[in-house]
Q: What sequence folds into this?
């Protein structure tokens, strides 16, 4: 029975047709109903999918009751505020905090916004090619958008009303596709001020800072994808070497590594990557072949609509101070002592013969100062003494 019913809609895969029944003709819809009636497992899967749709719709409507606001947000973020009416700008400004909360709660929405921006680029190219008057030499994306003739702005605005309407109609289809992509992911969210250390199936550890969201494949459901994660917020990664690349996806960028230690700070518009050790490649999601490669001690950033910036040298300990770790990379012991003194508000002295010894490693900023000093001293065949005047001294061992 199922085979006969399925064959009558052979123009589409049955599973895709059931996921999006609105695409079916009446005949295909009847055949799909027959297939469901004949196969209890298929019927249960379809019911589960409808439950997912309802759940997603409920969550989205709770966080984003007016979906057209996402269109306005995407246009404004891509520098197209001139196509919005004054009223739309006022509505968008009032709704911006709620929109940003929705984007943080549903990372897939950032992908939808990116799709809208891409469609906007394509639309403008078509408009320029087919509707711009030959005598109008002012480019649509001129630095001063106020120079665009009023009649043309009105025409663009009317055209965007159509584009926006079509985008809202397609909105849930895109989101459902993204939900399918996210099936089997484990998602961890940290509250403000909270830090969680997560160990992935391959041994990689992720130090997830407060107000962040990390999604990674459940090893029981998607072991083949176990080295791809998605991040919004801030995290420090210690990646276990493996022939398979490890990829961090953020709203604007892809960071790919084989084995390394690096920090990623990402919101919906900008991603910053700081490399502590190893090597990473950073590229915009929209231009994955336009990558830059970082060396230890370098940083790159990817903003919406831009390529990855040229790597620049940074002080790793300072640039990654937000991780809650002391991160040292060939750092002289005297510099480490200065930073520990400032952090713990306790003097730390170093014997002159040890001052230029270089240290590479990391320590949690929650550890007691003396425990960190004892670890440093042990690696240098030195010892820690309490200073009678207060604080500590690291001196050459007398043993």
A:
């Amino acid at each position: 029975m199922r085979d006969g019913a399925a064959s009558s809609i052979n123009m589409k895969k049955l599973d895709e047709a059931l996921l999006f029944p609105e695409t079916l003709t009446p005949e295909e819809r009847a055949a799909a109903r027959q297939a469901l009636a004949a196969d209890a497992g298929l019927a249960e899967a379809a019911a589960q999918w409808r439950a997912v749709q309802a759940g997603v719709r409920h969550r989205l409507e709770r966080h984003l009751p007016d979906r057209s606001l996402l269109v306005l947000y995407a246009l404004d973020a891509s520098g197209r505020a001139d196509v919005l009416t004054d009223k739309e700008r006022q509505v968008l400004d009032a709704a911006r905090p709620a929109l940003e909360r929705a984007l943080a709660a549903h990372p897939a929405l950032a992908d939808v916004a990116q799709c809208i921006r891409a469609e906007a680029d394509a639309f403008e190219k078509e408009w320029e090619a087919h509707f711009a008057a030959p005598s109008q030499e002012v480019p649509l994306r001129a630095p001063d958008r106020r120079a665009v003739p009023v009649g043309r702005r009105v025409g663009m605005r009317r055209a965007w009303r159509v584009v926006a309407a079509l985008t809202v109609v397609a909105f849930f289809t895109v989101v459902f596709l993204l939900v399918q992509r996210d099936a089997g992911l484990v998602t961890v969210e940290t509250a403000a001020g909270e830090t969680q250390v997560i160990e992935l199936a391959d041994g990689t550890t992720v130090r997830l800072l407060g107000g962040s969201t990390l999604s990674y494949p459940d090893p029981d459901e998607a072991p083949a994808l176990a080295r791809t994660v998605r991040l919004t917020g801030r995290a420090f990664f210690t990646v276990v070497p493996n022939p398979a690349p490890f990829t961090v996806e953020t709203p604007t960028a892809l960071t790919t590594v084989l084995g390394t230690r690096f920090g990623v700070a990402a919101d919906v518009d900008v991603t910053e990557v700081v490399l502590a050790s190893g090597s990473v490649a950073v590229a915009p999601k929209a231009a994955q072949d336009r990558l830059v490669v970082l060396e230890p001690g370098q940083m790159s950033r990817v903003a919406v609509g831009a390529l990855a910036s040229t790597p620049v040298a940074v002080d790793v300990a300072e640039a990654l101070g937000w991780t809650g770790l002391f991160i040292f990379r060939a750092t002289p012991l005297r510099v480490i002592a200065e930073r520990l003194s400032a952090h713990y508000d306790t003097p730390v002295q170093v014997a002159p013969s040890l001052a230029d010894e270089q240290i590479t490693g990391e320590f949690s900023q929650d550890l007691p100062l003396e425990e960190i000093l004892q670890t440093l001293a042990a690696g240098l065949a030195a010892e820690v003494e309490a200073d009678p005047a207060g604080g500590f001294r690291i001196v050459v061992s007398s043993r």
Observations:
- The first strand starts at residue 185 and ends at 189.
- Residues 1-13, 135-148, 172-181 have pLDDT under 50 and may be disordered.
